[in-house]
Design goal:
The structure is a homodimer of 404-residue chains. By secondary structure, chain A is an alpha/beta fold. The first copy, chain A, is built from twelve helices and 15 strands. Chain A binds a DNA duplex (30 and 30 nucleotides) through residues 10, 12-14, 16-17, 20, 35-37, 40, 45-52, 68, 71-78.
Chain lengths: 404, 404
DNA sequence: TTAGTTCGTCTTGCGACTAAACAAAATTAG
DNA sequence: CTAATTTTGTTTAGTCGCAAGACGAACTAA
């Protein structure tokens, strides 16, 4: 539940109304099915006010009445549910090797989930943007065909994304200063819904905070385990943006000044020690040539060997897990989150990485009663795409309801 | 600076009123002297509304009318100024070797600034709490004698402080699980104003964000340079609290696995490499015995020798600066702040530390157009105390105005 | 059938903002 | 010196949205 900072703007009735509409909407989302009386009792709003708000939301097709139920004493309640059907939020995820599209309804139900291969490294940015826009357009058309209205489209990119939607730097895509939002916006014909671009880790952590195992945690960090390592940070219930929009760049934090060289030209980066590519290289010394060609196959092979007790693979996993634990300890000491969620290719490897990381974390955590937990994501590879769609819902939740 | 409550709580008229009162108050603070018409034009509020709000604020003695001025065409404006005089906010700072008390009025003017020595390490927590409460009481009585109403008292402690005011761990004071807020509250006779306790770095960064050289920066990190190193983090305009209230513990982040042993029992901590104690030990190898006895004298001696071109001292400063730069690079990559402010004993040493730190930072920063700046605090040793008082004003600014 | 319970609406009142007219106080023009 | 102009701040009327409480509706229990 991300709340945006409101600046020096004064408040008026519209704000009160929008706030309370959002309060009711969020309550119903979390307590389906429920009655108007339930809402009034739980939120403290007056029954009459709730009736008015609910009528408004039904009018906007955000809520729907179901048949009466609740066989209790007294008048039966008219139960309300989220009416997701007329709306959709779309999220796209760009990766070095694939594109993902996800669409969800207001209730967070996935109504579309596509994945297609994509050659991010060798495609020119212009081509890539065209391919991304094309996928987005297909997804949008699909949900429109179902009779839904699109509330927004958000694209996750593995790199530094400025607030205006310009991708400043995406090493794994070979991009620099690409105005992706503008390109996609134009390819979609300047649509009425907002198109935005954000870092993939930022979107993934939003997905985790809504739909993950620790949904609702106010302090949550997500570590991407794709070609690089990035962090999405939710602190005190809000996604961190930083001064220029580039927080969470943990991949090139130095873990060991005596560590190995990193692809970025520096030495001892977390990515060089605990990155999936580095891990694969250590765990599969015999197939070092193919490493870059297909990370997924390599990770599967590492899993196979680790299960088979292969010492080289197990040692590599332990080593990477320890380095990862050291990186996580930095996050924990600086940010004190409740959970650190591992995503991407870290997920299949989590069984070996997490014990080593937790061991390291125990020795390096400052805070008492070691609270921070490390878990693997259960959302799968589309986490950032789903999070992209979820950011659109966050807008709605924050009171930015669709007009009638 | 939240305006309407965006949480699960619904909004009503009182929230609108409180929000707009705070909007007017903040505007006047930043634009003294100004007229009602100015406020209306700048905020977008209606002239009538502004008049009503201003009348309310004058009634609460938060604003005051001055004589007419502004010799322009048209009716002369009645100029308004902040009326700080009837109120005061008090901040205390606990350190291993001294206590500080600061009181400020609504405009942020210091109306009291005391410093007294204090033997934090050898005093039992009960005695220490008594001494702290006594100093607080004297400060409170002093401002009350001036005819002011105390709006709140906030105490900064170098350690882990839970949200309920319990000091979980303060190694440099030898404290563990001390309910300082309760003790001080009782020593003050359960006063009507709120007493709170927070980490000293958190309070210092609040002071920096209000009164420092980079006041107003939305992304700001403060590093304490006392016996330990702690970080206070303001991100997107808000102080980070973390899941348990223990963020910013950067002192024991590992910078180098092959580094020296730290007092905490671990190896290669930032504090062991770049802490003031470690620095003094390296820079003054001949006087290693006295190190703990008086850090301030030792730091002065380091400054004297560095100015004199002493190679040992200069090497130690360069080494510590580099390590500090590495720690700062971690912060920069994770949080992307606009400024990192060095405080405490880092300030007199900043001339030597910052160049080395910036050099390191340039090589380790990921983001392009290296934006993060490193500066020394200009607030002096009372930063945390002043920040403690400022947190009280933040409450007022957020709409929590004193009752009549 | 009657009493009791709960739900949701209706009516009334109030608080807070907006818009527009107006009164007040100065400067400028003739 | 008077009148027009300009700007300020108040007054009046109106609207919006929430709260409180009465009330009808719909169901259970006895």
């Amino acid at each position: 539940m991300i709340t945006l900072p409101r600046g020096p703007q004064p408040a008026d009735f519209a704000d009160v109304r929008a706030t309370n509409l959002a309060v009711v909407l969020r309550y119903v989302r979390g307590h389906v099915p429920c009655s108007r009386a339930d809402i009034a009792a739980a939120t403290g709003l007056n029954k009459a006010t709730v009736s008015s708000l609910v009528a408004d939301l039904i009018d906007r097709h955000l809520l729907r009445e179901t048949g009466l139920t609740e066989n209790r004493i007294g008048r039966p309640a008219t139960m309300l549910v989220l009416d997701g059907s007329p709306y959709a939020a779309v999220g796209l995820e760009v990766n070095a090797d694939y594109l993902t599209a996800v669409a969800i309804d207001l209730g967070g139900e996935e109504i579309l989930s596509w994945r297609r291969s994509f050659d991010g490294l060798n495609a020119a940015p212009a081509q890539a943007a065209t391919a991304i826009a094309a996928l987005g357009k297909r997804a949008v058309n699909r949900v429109i065909k179902e009779g839904r209205r699109v509330l927004g489209l958000t694209i996750g990119v593995p790199g530094l994304v400025a607030a205006d939607g310009v991708v400043r730097l995406a090493p794994n895509l070979g991009w620099q200063d690409i105005d992706l939002r503008d390109r996609v916006n134009r390819a979609l014909g300047e649509p009425s819904y907002p198109v935005s671009v954000d870092n993939d880790a930022n979107l993934a952590v939003i997905a985790e905070s809504r739909y993950g195992e620790h949904a609702g945690a106010a302090n949550l960090v997500y570590l991407t385990g794709e070609v690089g390592i990035g962090a999405g940070i939710i602190s005190d219930g809000r996604l961190l943006h930083g001064a220029r929009g580039f927080p969470g760049e943990i991949g090139h934090v130095q873990i060991d000044p005596a560590g190995p060289a990193c692809g970025c030209g520096r030495v001892g980066c977390l990515e060089a020690l605990a990155g999936v590519s580095a891990l694969v290289r250590k765990a599969l010394p015999d197939s070092a040539e193919e490493v870059i060609t297909d990370l997924e196959l390599d990770v599967n092979e590492v899993v196979r060997r680790a299960k088979g007790g292969d010492k080289v693979a197990l040692d590599a996993l332990a080593e990477s897990g320890t380095a990862l634990g050291r990186g996580i300890s930095t996050i924990v000491n600086l940010l004190d989150p409740e959970v650190v969620v591992l995503g991407g290719y870290f997920v299949p490897l989590a069984g070996w990485l997490i014990p080593a990381a937790e061991e390291e974390l125990r020795t390096r955590g400052v805070a008492p009663e070691d609270g921070t937990r490390v878990t693997a994501s259960v959302l799968g590879h589309g986490a950032a795409a789903k999070g992209g769609a979820a950011t659109v819902l966050d807008q709605v939740d924050a009171g930015n309801l669709p007009k009638r």
